[in-house]
Amino acid sequence: MKLKKQAKAIFSVAGGKGGVGKSIFATALGVNLARGGHSVALVDLDLGAANLHTYLGIIKQTPTIADFILKKVSSLDELLIETSRDNLRIISGAEFVPGMANPAHWMKLKIVRHITALPADYIIIDLGAGIHFNTLDFFGMSDRGIVVTAPEPGAVMNAYSFVKAALFRKLQGVFKKHPDIGPIIEAKTKNPEEEKKFSLEWLTEKTKDLAPDMLPLIEEVEKDFSPALVVNRIDVGGKHVLVDNLIALCGKRLGISMKHLGNLPDVPFIRDYLLDIPGFLTAFRGERYLEAVRGITDNLLPAEQLTVPAGNVKTSFDDDELEEITKFIETLDESIFSNTNRNTLKLRLYFKPSEVIDYLISKGVTHKIFYIND
Ligand SMILES: Nc1ncnc2c1ncn2[C@@H]1O[C@H](COP(=O)(O)OP(=O)(O)OP(=O)(O)O)[C@@H](O)[C@H]1O
Ligand SMILES: [Mg+2]
Questions:
Q1: 246: domain range?
Q2: For a FRET experiment, which of 82, 128, 145, 164 has its CA 20 to 30 Å from that of 137?
Q3: Atom of ligand 1 nearest to the CA of 20
Q4: What's the rounded Cα separation, in Å, for the pair 263 and 148?
């Protein structure tokens, strides 16, 4: 099937704790981008506890992501529903369906492939609370993960646990087949005391001993994994010691830098608009919240330096395809690797396949696996 990346960026909104304002923020971000003339697809991937559609006033029965998971439709874009706002469409999440809250890994990859191909400038994925594997996986697969928290101890601790779990999950995925590094990451996850000591720095040290050729891959994770932070229910520009601690902790304990995109004000009257968040944003009472969302959007967009890939080059590959490309790279002439080296390129492939494919194509190297089969 023809699956080509259309969006400039895929954002996911998560945060560990329930009820901190993730879905309302995801909706508001979508409304704001749509008002700016961008086409936006909101996707509710809070599998099993979906409610994003209600914030857009969609209360009648519509197709949902369950229809895709249960194979009633073959393509995700068939599920896009118009909303009351121009440029803004949504794929509704499903009510609880047995087995659906935990789709198999291949199904998650299929969902991501189809999300990537949705016809929109920006895609915003709303994720559920908690640290379920599917939440972590969807978070890790998006271009930019946004963590929403409230300035309260419980929420901040949950946000930290979420970021840590997402980093762990990412590293587990990257190194799952590595005979030395895979098991040491696995062992850390089994023991809570050991888990506390986990950081990218620790992994780097271990890797120096066990498999130094893998160090570029850790650097790649470090560069690529940079969740952004939005703090809800605190004045714009306001500082909070717990939030500062969270950012410091992510840096010190995990070795990752988290960008604070901005705050959202506490707006109790939002409760009057829970079936019409777009209406709230254009109402006088929603002005402060909308202004804050605008600031966050401005901080978010320059951060993504993503371009829409040209032509019919694929942007995502399954494990078998990646393996085949790795073998193909083995066969290439040394002169292809003038600015890099063969091993680094193979490692990068698992992380940023598009960049590697673009590089190879720029060197005049092609393979039919790079392209979409029409
Ligand atoms: N900025 C805000 N000011 C006041 N109340 C808010 C604000 N943001 C969210 N709320 C309140 O919090 C409730 C939950 O918001 P929302 O559904 O966005 O949270 P969530 O994090 O997506 O929850 P869940 O984890 O259940 O998916 C809303 O019903 C609203 O009443
Ligand atoms: Mg929600």
A1: 9-300
A2: 82
A3: 21
A4: 9
**Any atom of ligand 1 within 6 Å of the Cβ of 232:** yes
Q: Give the ligand at the shortest distance from the Cα of 24.
A: 1
Q: Given a cut of 60, is residue 304 above it in pLDDT?
A: no
Distance from the CA of 20 to the center of ligand 1, in angstroms?
5
Residues 264 and 343 in one domain: no
Q: Is 238 in the pocket of ligand 1 (CB under 6 A)?
A: no
Cβ of 368 less than 6 Å from ligand 1: no
Same domain? 84 vs 14? yes
Ligand 1 pocket member 14 (CB < 6 A):
no
Number of domains in the chain: 2
Helix or strand (DSSP H, E) at 131: none
Reported as a single tens digit per residue, the pLDDT across 204-218 is 999 999 999 889 888
Question: For the segment 47-82, what is each residue's pLDDT rounded down to a tens digit?
Answer: 878 899 999 999 998 999 999 988 999 999 999 999
Residues 290 and 214 in one domain: yes
Tell me: do 353 and 287 sit in the same domain.
Answer: no
**Pocket of ligand 1, candidates 53, 158, 233, 270: which has the most ligand atoms within 8 Å of its Cβ, to mutate?**
270
The band of 3, judged by pLDDT with boundaries at 50, 70 and 90, is low
| 141 and 287 housed in the same domain | yes
CB contact burial 316-348 (16+ within 10 A = b; e otherwise): bbeeeebeebeeebeeeeeebbeeeeeebbbbb
91: domain CATH number is: 3.40.50.300
Name residues with Cβ closer than 5 Å to ligand 2, which is an ion: 22-23
9-14, strands of its sheet edge to edge: 81-82, 88-91, 40-44, 122-126, 9-14, 144-149, 228-232, 259-264
Percent of the chain with pLDDT over 90: 52
Strands 9-14 and 40-44: unpaired
The residue behind tokens 């777009």 is: 278
Pocket test for ligand 1, best of 12, 20, 148, 234 (most atoms within 8 A of CB): 20
Ligand 1 neighbourhood includes 235 CB (under 6 angstroms): no
Kindly state whether residues 334 and 267 are assigned to the same domain: no
> Does 176 have pLDDT greater than 50?
yes
